[in-house]
UniProtKB/TrEMBL annotation:
Domain FAD/NAD(P)-binding: 2-301
GO molecular function: oxidoreductase activity
Pfam family, one: Pyr_redox_2
Cofactor(s) it depends on: FAD
Keyword check for Disulfide bond: no
UniProt name for this protein: NAD(P)/FAD-dependent oxidoreductase
Amino acid sequence: MKHLVIGNGAAGVVAAEMIRKHAPCDSIMLLGNEPGPSYSLSLLPRLVSGDIGESGCHLRSESDHFYRLRIEQRFGRISRIDSKAHKVLMEDGVAFGYDRLLIATGASACIPTIPGIHSPGVHACRTLQDARRIVALARPRAHVVLVGAGLTGCVLMEALAARHVHLAVIEQNERMASNMMPAGAAGMLKRWCESKGVRICTSTRILAIERINQGMAGGPRLVARLSNGECLFADLIVCATGAQPNIGFLRGSGIACTQGILVDASMQTSVPGIYAAGDCAETFDAASGRMVIAGVLPNAVDQACCAALNMIGKSAFQHHVRRIEVLATMGLVTSSFGEWHGLPGGQWVEASDERNYRYLRLEFRKDVLVGANAVGLREQHGMLRDLVQHQVALGEWKDRLLRNPAHISDAYRACVRRHGGANADIADQDIMRSTMQDMMRGQASPETVAAIAYRTISNAARRPPPARFGNPS
Ligand SMILES: Cc1cc2nc3c(=O)[nH]c(=O)nc-3n(C[C@H](O)[C@H](O)[C@H](O)COP(=O)(O)OP(=O)(O)OC[C@H]3O[C@@H](n4cnc5c(N)ncnc54)[C@H](O)[C@@H]3O)c2cc1C
């Protein structure tokens, strides 16, 4: 069987390795469009901060890794896919045949269409080359404007601040990380960042960029014109304004796409034998009841494993999409779980300690915690996640929590632990989570993550849906 994997980022690499592990005799080709070692996007902020060097971003450290696994690597630009002839055609005229095809081409930066956006000194951070350019211009005391305070923006903010630059963040929404937290938590996050010396302008858009003269280190000097009438001088402007799947080459292939490549729970596209995974794939999320592009590393790995297993004739399904639950911004840890914006007819409670940067919001439907947000409450993350994910019936504890949400740890102990809360599902997911964190820190290989992801997928497939824990009272 001939497997062709397009895209040599996290999803492509994990899928190719997974295929090799389970199909030792199959032929595998991994096709990338950036020559050089495969690297992890999620480690680019650490490269920008100076925490690691370029080799620290590589997905695999041994230069002969793919050779040893008999995974053939090729680089080049694809012109189109002929799905009837089972061929991928390259711009240089070469064609590669396949029996099973995986598209794992990720996404590119979405750049706002404003005058001057393509000036030198304006960069996204979605490739190694972008990160190199940012590092070259973000010298100590340089003036840097970061556009976008979503999840990627928050991660990049910390990385840029570590370079001792003067940093201003422009966010068009009325709050930071608006797709992860409500006004109370986001307001606290904003105050925290400002207390660390970062200027944050919310409800503000960048309207135009002009180049005026030479900036620091011979770089350009830019002026960002803002919707609030201000002009900010900058040696560097970084855009963290979203991403769009790399699917342009699929035109005419017959593969159905909307925003991303539409896949079913086995990661198969509308064309049998062709799969998609990672930031280019759009998949149904049973929890939210919507089609989504996950855009986070754990999903890319889960989906890659799932696609790989199906490509070699095993059966695996991916019904849920993992969201980013925990975010660290300038040292402040925020978290959001489940339906954090609440459900119609539900009840909620909010408590905050403004001075110590602590915040908790709980959202209920009947006696079940359906969503939660926390700021500065690291120890409670696991509890909140378990209560939300496993729809624990809280019984009388719901009213106690509505009176005082600070009793969340007691409620957890009473409702979960007493009922043997560490069931196999929670245990698997905890191992997966901590291994994923290790991988992000460079302490666990993606092979380990892939192996555990596979175990989690296959265990979950064998088990019935998680039961509701009972109420002890
Ligand atoms: C700055 C930043 C920080 C992030 N931080 C986190 C984080 O902390 N936690 C988290 O969970 N997620 C994070 N993410 C998201 C995470 O990195 C992505 O979800 C993950 O990389 C997706 O993997 P992927 O393989 O689908 O795509 P990618 O990693 O983008 O890989 C796609 C690969 O395909 C190649 N390619 C594209 N088009 C073609 C083509 N036509 N032919 C051949 N090859 C092609 C690309 O060059 C690339 O190498 C971050 C992302 C960014 C940008």
